[in-house]
Design brief:
With about 280 residues, the protein is mainly alpha-helical. Helices cover about 80% and strands about 5% of the residues.
Length: about 280
């Protein structure tokens, strides 16, 4: 199992590195779009769709929504419509605010969203803004650095949560959704993410950006990453499955790797856009 996890992790890191360093922004958009379509295939199962045709159809709908958002926002052109990009990211962030209420209210909240059409809509609100966020960030003059920063914030939150939760995790964060998650892990992950961002700001920013604003963005991004993880856990628990899929040996499905990022990326991108950076 460990060997499989290591091999899969190396392949994923190689894909990310290739997309960021050797592909133009349009290439990365296509690559991430492919990953999102795989995630959509898995989301279809979490939404209760069982047949291959139905799951492929759902993935196709997500693909069409991505193409439509790219066309109308002109995000892959030299003159993107930032107002529309902002609105798409804003809708995505508003959705995560609703998701927070549903996660906190689980299992009672399932009466609101357990219908298949609701869960399919949740997938669209999760996956399309995530794609827009990554493409928007990549098109920024410091796009590669920004994407690595988001990945770093998410990874720091995950690593910090693991070690602090293992050491002090007696008080549970959301026992009905994810029994292993604890408040100690939550605070440890948040502190790790903020510490990483402060260190990077001190080393590389040179005072160009307000430390308060930078820390605020790091905090909401880290919080969003936790919510993304919890939302997927909630859906899997409702559906009675352990992993979103089996495409990544030793890691589960694509959504099991992207869950935190689907929430963190839109929140980070919207904050960055609104800050005018």
């Amino acid at each position: 199992m460990l060997k499989q996890r290591i091999i899969t992790a190396i392949i994923l890191i190689s894909l990310i590195g290739t997309g960021l360093f050797w592909m133009p922004p349009t290439g990365l958009a296509a690559l991430f779009g492919g990953l999102v379509l795989i995630a959509a295939w898995e989301w279809a199962a979490m939404a209760g769709l069982s047949s291959v045709i139905a799951r492929l159809g759902y993935a196709a709908v997500i693909g069409l929504l991505i193409l439509a958002s790219a066309h109308y926002s002109q995000i892959l052109t030299a003159a993107p419509k930032f107002e529309l990009i902002r609105d798409i990211l804003g809708v995505g962030c508003l959705w995560w605010a609703v998701a927070l209420l549903w996660v906190r209210g689980f299992p009672a909240s399932a009466v609101i969203w357990r219908a298949g059409v609701m869960r399919m809509s949740m997938g669209a609100l999760t996956l399309v803004p995530a794609w827009i966020a990554i493409v928007y960030l990549r098109n920024h003059p410091y796009g590669i650095e920004l994407i690595f920063l988001v990945i770093g914030i998410v990874a720091a939150a995950d690593i910090g949560a693991y070690f602090s939760g293992k050491a002090w995790g007696k008080s549970k964060l959301a026992v009905e959704v994810s029994p292993r998650k604890s408040w100690a892990g939550f605070w440890g992950g948040l502190i790790s993410s903020v510490s990483l961002v402060i260190t990077l700001w001190w080393l590389f920013d040179g005072g160009r950006h307000s430390l308060v604003a930078v820390v605020a963005i790091a905090v909401v991004t880290a919080l969003a990453s936790v919510l993304g993880d919890l939302l997927e856990s909630m859906l899997k628990r409702q559906q009675g499955i352990k992993d979103s899929g089996r495409i990544l040996p030793g890691h589960g499905g694509m959504m099991d790797r992207l869950d935190s990022m689907t929430a963190a990326a839109p929140v980070f991108a919207l904050c960055f856009l609104l800050a005018g950076w």
